[in-house]
Amino acid sequence: MGRTGPRLSDIVGDVSVDFDIEAEQTQLWLVAAVVSLAVGLLVTWLAVDLFPYHTVNDDEGVYLIQAAMLLEGKLFLYPGELAEAVRPWFFVVEETPSAPGGVQMFSKYSPVVPTMFALGLAVGLPNLVLGVVAAANAAFVYVLGADVFDRQTGIVAAGLLGFSPLFLINSATFLAYAPTTMLNLAFAVCYVRAARRDSSGYAVVAGSLVGLAFFARPYTAVLFALPFIAHSLWALGTAWRAGTGWAVFRRYLAIGLPGLAFVGLTLAYNAVVTGDPLEFPYMAFAPLDGVGFGYREILGYDLVYTPELGVETGVEVLEMLVTQWGPMGWLGTAAAVVGLGFAVLRWWGHKTGTNLHGSERRQAHGLGGRDRAFVELSDDALAAIVLGVFGSVFVGNVFFWGTHNGLRNGLIDLLGPFYHFDALVPLVVFAAAGLVGSLRFVRHRAHERFSPSEARGVVFAVALVFALVAGGVTLGAVEEPYDENRLRTENLESTYEPLLEAGFESPPLTPTDPSFSGEAAGTKKALVFHPDPYGDWSAHPFQTLRNDPGFDGRVVYAIDDGPEQDFTVLDATNRTPYRFAYQGSWTGAEDPVTPELTRLRVLSGERVTATTVLGTPEETRTVSVRVEADGEYARYDVPMAENHTIDWEMTAEGVRVTNYPHAGGVRRVPIPEGASDVDLAVTYVGDFGETVTYRQTVSVERADGDVRVIWPPETRVCRLSLDCGSDGQWVGPDGDYVAGVSVETNATVAG
Q: Of 675, 501, 694, nearest to 602 (Cα)?
């Protein structure tokens, strides 16, 4: 008898072994556990090493603030007078007379995922939660892969998550995508067991898990569940036609009731935080930031989102996933296509009369043949469902404009198509089937043509070559996003350096200005004013600077947003104040900035006298000095010198320079009642009209004949402009300035 080709079972499963089945299953479970643990450890390492200051997706800070709130049993923040200075990114502000201080805030996100993160915060190991979620996802992928094909395929599928840049990078962040996928996968695994074992217990758990996923991310959960819902409806219809629908209906009732209960819980949560069960928190934050086409808007960014734009965006993201961000990049996609081919071959074999899900399967609900296999969720039916997840995720996200935003703002370039995270599940399952099936095919052919030892060598060689190629392709796929995120981490680390050195979170506090002779910083908690390059948001972009939910921790971080707000914060907190600033333009940590942390004083009295000593920039020939307040100014005659000492004073009558004569006009500029900014501007001019300007801005509050001054002023140095932005921020002698520039300043209360 001549040799025959490989049997279908040799390729896609049902391979006989020479040792005890139970022992083999135990070994495979152990291997799967080791693989899942390895994936979890890899993600934990990435979280610690690559993202110690989080990513540039500032939603991480939102989830962590909410996690800290939940640890204290809070759904709302009550900032009182601090509301405008401490509003976190993506938090809704409500003026509520019944709330403490009349103001309350709540997150646009649901509390499900923050609750998971809270477990890590509670034990001081938040990154551990990320590793556990990643390991759980790998374990559930193993089980699902084993259910669709076999245990060996499940193990490879779990391992492929560790070769998926999208999975690794997003699992290492405090975002909701990986945790929600964990809930979805757990639902899928329980759904399979409920169908195959006719188990009401698994059905109840499955319904609870999909309901919890809905609570976490409603649209994500619906898209993942759609293929399972389709199977449920088809199975019910099949059973009713056979006259046994009630028995099957009970199973899906057991799934549906707890699922609906969690939907009810979601609506109840909505009612608590927004006042309307049908208004989700994200809708309260941005009503036009939702699913569907037409006019869309969030925080001033708007767009008419058309079906054509949705399809174009979906195609762009699909290309990114299948060529770079999926398992092993394009190689994993090719393997998934092969795996899909094997699944089709298996289905064709079953259709033509070979076994269905197992020859020993019992007859159920009076159904037989293909109807029974479908109702009980055969391997082929489950493969179709898993494949359907890929389609539902991509088609469903065509209707959501958030993917387009992620592409335009660069987040998807750094973190991958995170809205399509669930699409990794079918990719890794079918890619694993392609790899395992191909290796079995090679093994079968090798054993036909060579001796056993030679055949093992051939199989090993093929596996080794493939592993080397796969490793190279995977490294190539992950290299660019890894390097880009590493660059941002390094820039964030340098940005936070003065704050880390100050040790605000670890007592005792020490002043950064050793010359300060006032009250020791260690006797009070700290208040840090910080810039807001993205608008009036706390923890955006500096999401590491997060406040405790009660705004009563060792440090309060407040937006530096004008004198009136700054004095309000100072009075409300009674803390040792600091100003965090930087020189340069904030570009999402793509470019470095030069940071500075300055200890502040509040000087109060009838008169505050100040002295500013400025170095004369090289190649300048003339100088002018002026003080400004409330749109008015006074100029003073100043001769050229190697440096200039400028004495100026602030009183209830106004601000003036005292050691130089005024150049006509007013000698003293009035300071308005209340809080305002006062400026000292010194401009040097060169031979060709080029200028270098020093601008010192000090916050002053005038009331009852006295003044209060926040000192030292914000100092900026700029060229070719009289008004200096953050590029010209003075951060000490190490900054990048024109040669000859230097600044010394001091102030005291007199009289």
A: 675
pLDDT at 45: 97
Q: What is the pLDDT of residue 20?
A: 57
Cα gap 439→448, rounded to integer Å: 14
Q: What are phi and psi for residue 594, nearest 5 degrees?
A: -105, 110
Is residue 146 classed exposed, middle or buried when 0-12, 13-18 and 19+ CB atoms within 10 A define those classes? buried
Give the chain's length: 751
Q: Which of 507, 490, 496, 502 is nearest to 530 (CA)?
A: 496
Give the 3-state DSSP-derived string for 312-355, with helices as H, strands as E and coil as C: HHHHHHHHHHHHHHCCCCHHHHHHHHHHHHHHHHHHHHHHCCCC
Cis, peptide link before residue 712, omega less than 30° from 0: yes
CA dist 10 and 276 (Å) reads 57
What one-letter code names the amino acid at 367? Answer: L
Average pLDDT value for residue range 598-615: 96
Of the listed ranges 18-32, 69-83, 104-118, 624-638, the one predicted with least confidence: 18-32
Secondary element (H or E) of residue 612:
strand 607-615
Q: Order across the sheet with 643-651: list the strands.
A: 654-657, 643-651, 607-615, 743-750
E strands present in 114-190: none
CB-neighbour burial class of residue 537 (10 A; exposed 0-12, middle 13-18, buried 19+): buried
Per residue in 189-247, pLDDT (tens digit) is 999 999 999 899 999 999 999 999 999 999 999 999 999 999 999 988 888 887 777 87
Q: Is residue 372 within 8 Å of residue 203, measured between CB atoms? A: no
Q: 494 CB contacts (<8 Å, ≥6 apart)?
A: 592, 593, 595
Residue bearing tokens 């898993």: 386
- Residue 459: which residues within 8 A CB-CB, separation 6 or more? 439, 442, 443, 446
pLDDT band per the 50, 70, 90 thresholds, residue 516: very low
Q: Are 392 and 227 in contact (CB under 8 A)?
A: yes
555-605 tens-digit pLDDT:
999 999 999 999 999 999 989 999 999 999 999 999 999 999 999 999 999
Residue with tokens 């840049």: 165
Residue among 406, 479, 480, 473 at smallest CA distance from 177: 406
Phi-psi label, residue 240: left if phi above 0, alpha if psi -120 to 50, beta otherwise: alpha
H/E segment holding residue 576: strand 576-583
pLDDT tens digit sequence for 671-709 = 999 999 999 999 999 988 899 999 999 999 999 999 999
One-letter amino acid at 645 equals T
Distances (CA, A) of 735 to 21, 596, 739: 70, 10, 11
Q: Is the pLDDT at 2 greater than 50, yes or no? A: no
3-state secondary structure of 151: helix
pLDDT at 428 over 90: yes
Q: Give the whole-angstrom CA distance, residue 420 versus residue 151.
A: 26
State pTM to two decimals. 0.90
3-state secondary structure of 697: strand
Residue 723 has a CB neighbour count (10 Å cut-off) of: 11
For 498-535, give one letter per residue: b (16+ CB within 10 A) or e.
bbeebebeeeebebbeeeeeeeebeeebbbbbbbbbee
- Bridge partner list, 612: 646, 745
Secondary-structure percent of the chain, ordered helix, strand, coil, rounded to 5: 50, 20, 30
- Please name which of 748, 601, 608, 740 lies closest in space to residue 684, comparing C-alpha atoms: 740
Contact 610, 650 (CB under 8 A): yes
